[in-house]
TrEMBL record:
Gene Ontology molecular function terms on file: DNA-binding transcription factor activity, RNA polymerase II-specific; transcription cis-regulatory region binding
Keyword Transcription regulation recorded: yes
Lineage: Eukaryota, Fungi, Dikarya, Ascomycota, Pezizomycotina
GO cellular component: nucleus
Subcellular location: Nucleus
Top-level taxon in the UniProt lineage: Eukaryota
PANTHER family with a match to the protein in the record: FINGER DOMAIN PROTEIN, PUTATIVE-RELATED, REGULATORY PROTEIN LEU3
UniProt entry keywords in alphabetical sequence: DNA-binding, Nucleus, Transcription, Transcription regulation
Natural source organism: Trichoderma guizhouense
Protein name per Swiss-Prot or TrEMBL: Zn2Cys6 transcriptional regulator
UniProt xrefs under InterPro entries: prtT (IPR051089)
Length: 358
């Protein structure tokens, strides 16, 4: 909390003590490492909820502190810190860009994202690209940028830009599954990476069920979406936790939409819920589930076991069922109250101004 509020600085050991503190160099180095880790967590947590981080890590890590302590920090933490500095810069730019709280200005989205992409590539040049975790965080940051194209309603290049975001979302899903094979990341996945996995699945879902679907390989897209749902289930550590509920929400969204309908009757993929910036797409999927699927209590968010072979078999069966032309349409259920929806989504929705007592 202190890091999130910007109260703690790594080179001031006496900030939380009434006594004078004499710190040795090893202790100061350890404090720097701890501060960096806390700052990364604080930034990722804020970005996941679509809010602005208050800690400006790039201000605190300049000059003497960077020159003196960065050589003593491990390369993975150093690379993650550099990515986080860019992530904070990009998030702040997104907040400063719009004229109103409705996401980036439509006419500025393309050039805005391209400029940030160029900056990100410059950051990548000086990083340790051999680390699976570093590369995974890089792909998460790039996906965070590309989904901003969903804010653009009608520019000539919107279709290509959104399809680029779709392709990169499938790349992110495929890569995080590959990384799990090597380092078992799903057993201890950071919340930020899990949210980006859900966001990537949401991007795939939106494009597959839009007028853009003829431009993509729908069979491969459906298979990738199934893989994402299975991956989210593997992130679950106990029955009916946030990871399991998000996997079930995405599965219900998928089953509730006829993916083999005539493409001409669909609309371009769009965002209804736009005030969460980089997190808007994830929240938009949650609100679509609430409004059009309603939670489907008949199958229940807590009905699926987690981390078992039975789950994988059930997910595969659901895939075949969803792709068949005879798949029954799920009926929307509208009696789920806001408290239940907040519990199901695992996200704080009070900031959106809704009355949970409705």
């Amino acid at each position: 909390m202190a890091t999130q509020l910007g109260l703690y600085q790594p080179d001031q050991p006496g900030y939380f003590s009434r006594l004078n503190c004499i710190s040795t160099e090893p202790l100061r180095t350890e404090k720097i490492r701890t501060w960096l880790a806390c700052t990364i967590v604080a930034h990722n947590n804020a970005a996941g909820y679509g809010s602005l981080p208050t800690t400006l890590s790039n201000f605190a890590l300049t000059g003497r502190i960077r020159d003196e302590y960065f050589p003593r920090i491990s390369q993975p933490l150093k690379s993650q810190t550099e990515l986080q500095e860019f992530f904070g810069k990009a998030t702040r730019a997104m907040f400063d860009n719009p004229a109103e709280i409705d996401g980036p200005e439509p006419t500025n989205v393309g050039p805005f994202v391209r400029a940030l992409e160029a900056d990100l590539e410059n950051v990548l040049q000086g990083m340790d690209g051999t680390s699976d975790l570093t590369r995974l965080h890089y792909t998460a940051v790039k996906l965070f940028l590309l989904i901003q194209h969903f804010f653009d309603p009608d520019s000539p290049e919107r279709r290509l830009a959104v399809l680029e975001a779709y392709n990169f979302a499938t790349t992110f899903i495929t890569y995080i599954i590959e990384v799990d094979v090597r380092i078992s990341i799903f057993a201890h996945i950071p919340v930020h990476l899990f949210r980006m996995l859900f966001t990537a699945a949401g991007a795939v879902f939106k494009v597959l069920n839009s007028s853009y679907s003829p431009d993509v390989d729908t069979e491969l897209g459906n298979a990738t979406l199934n893989q994402a749902i299975s991956a989210m289930r593997k992130c679950s550590v106990e029955n009916n936790d946030v990871a399991g509920r998000h996997a079930e929400i995405m599965r219900q969204l998928w089953l509730s939409t006829d993916t083999v309908s005539t493409p001409g009757c669909w609309q371009p993929p769009s965002l209804v819920h736009r005030s969460r910036f980089g997190a808007s797409l994830a929240y938009d999927c949650l609100f679509y589930w609430r409004d059009n699927v309603g939670g489907q209590r008949s199958i229940g968010l807590n009905s699926s076991a987690t981390r078992s072979d039975a789950v994988s078999e059930a997910a595969s069966a659901a895939t075949e069922h969803a792709l068949s032309s005879n798949a029954p349409e799920l009926q929307a259920q509208t009696d789920m109250d806001w408290a239940s929806f907040a519990w199901a989504s695992g996200m704080d929705l009070t900031a959106d101004g809704f009355n949970f007592d409705i």
